[in-house]
Specification:
The complex is a heterodimer of chains A (114) and B (114). With 114 residues, chain A is mostly beta strands. Chain A has no helices and 12 strands. In chain A, strand 8 and strand 9 form a beta hairpin. In chain B, a hairpin with a 2-residue loop joins strand 5 and strand 6. The chains are: A mainly beta (114), B mainly beta (114).
Chain lengths: 114, 114
């Protein structure tokens, strides 16, 4: 069985400040982890993924995420948030034993204020 | 991203109507997916197709009928829907259904059932 949790419904941050969106997961095998972003009236856009190797993964638009196996976490980070980063962010996990099925979190709304 | 195109973008229909949603991907992928996105709920995987064959039906009611004539096209036929079926329907594709493959999403069809 696999599951993913995004503990915050909304994250508020001032422009220029660091942004962190939290994600924890549970899998029976090894995890493949993904972050997506959704802007209003759009589909989900792929940001980055962790498959294996370096625990720090860099992705699109200046985002990065750190895989922490002991804490079963995969938090999304950006050193300096932009107003245009305001969107809905989804974490997703797939067990290495899983074919086809993503397990998505409920999403975290990020609001960046000028 | 224009790799996955969904039509129509908006659809309003009565409960006794029959309509179809269309998805087309130009990415050369072999796997395609239908998801339902309702407000305040995680994404719900509905169907998975791999090389035109349905590999997963996530206990979806029979009033939703998918069709995949080739690896580039996916349809969702709708008949006798209920008000609770109002949602954003997202199509996605990936190179394969392997767990390490990210999915690429269309912008969705916003469906409203009267």
């Amino acid at each position: 069985a696999q599951s993913v949790a995004q503990p915050e419904d909304q994250v508020n941050v001032a422009e220029g400040n660091p942004l962190t969106v939290k994600c924890t997961y549970s899998v029976s095998g090894n995890p493949y982890l993904f972050w997506y972003v959704q802007y209003p009236n759009r589909g989900l856009q792929f940001l980055l993924k962790y498959i294996t190797g370096d625990n720090l993964v860099k992705g699109s638009y200046g985002f990065e995420a750190e895989f922490n196996k002991s804490q079963t976490s995969f938090h999304l980070k950006k050193p300096s948030a932009l107003v245009s980063d305001s969107a809905l962010y989804f974490c997703a996990v797939r067990d290495t034993d899983s074919w086809g099925k993503f397990q998505f979190g409920a999403g975290t709304q990020v609001v960046v204020t000028p | 991203e224009t790799g996955v195109t969904q039509t129509p973008r908006h659809l309003v229909m009565g409960m006794t109507n029959k309509k179809s949603l269309k998805c087309e991907q130009h990415l050369g992928h072999n796997a395609m997916y239908w998801y339902k996105q309702s407000a305040k709920k995680p994404l719900e995987l509905m169907f998975v197709y791999n090389f035109k064959e349905q590999t997963e039906n996530n206990s979806v009611p029979s009033r939703f009928s998918p069709e995949c004539p080739n690896s580039s096209h996916l349809f969702l036929h709708l008949h006798t829907l209920q008000p609770e079926d109002s949602a954003l329907y997202l199509c996605a594709s990936s190179q394969t259904t392997a767990a390490n493959q990210p999915q690429h999403f269309g912008d969705g069809t916003r469906l409203s059932i009267l």
